[in-house]
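Reviewers of the previous submission asked for a worked example of the structure-prediction workflow described in the proposal, so we include one complete record here. The input consisted solely of the amino acid sequence. No template or homolog information was supplied to the procedure at any stage.
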Amino acid sequence: MLERDDSASSGRLEARWTPSRLPRLRPLPVNNKNAFNINRFLLGFSGYVGTGDFDRQSTFDQGGSAFLGGCFVPRTYEVYGRTSALTGPYGTAQEYGGGLNWYLNGTRQNRLTVEGLYINRSPILNFIYPYRAGFTGMAIQTQYMVVY
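From that input alone, the workflow returned the following structure tokens.
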């Protein structure tokens, strides 16, 4: 639950977060070379209290994502595609992407990723990744990940 009380300031905002998630369909890899993953989610926020021109008491969003990948050199190079969508009271957004993972030492714990994305009406703002609220267009990103 998230709560915020700004009664000392000019107004008050209180929000209760109620996540609910449907079961994931995550089959085991078809073999050591391929992976497939589908997620479906429901997300609700309720209990908004505000002052002034504040007409919402709750929001509800739903969506899902899918990932399909395959290693053309096992434990070294993986090509993948992914997609996601989100819909709610403020509209619908989609994302389509694909790229290449290079597993530098044969594990997911040391990898370099190059990815191309098409984002349609991004619903979020994130300064680290190429997501800007309302953005529609292409993006190319690289990422290096080390887990120790």
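Residues 24-41+61-146 form one domain. We consider this example representative of the routine output the project will generate in years two and three.
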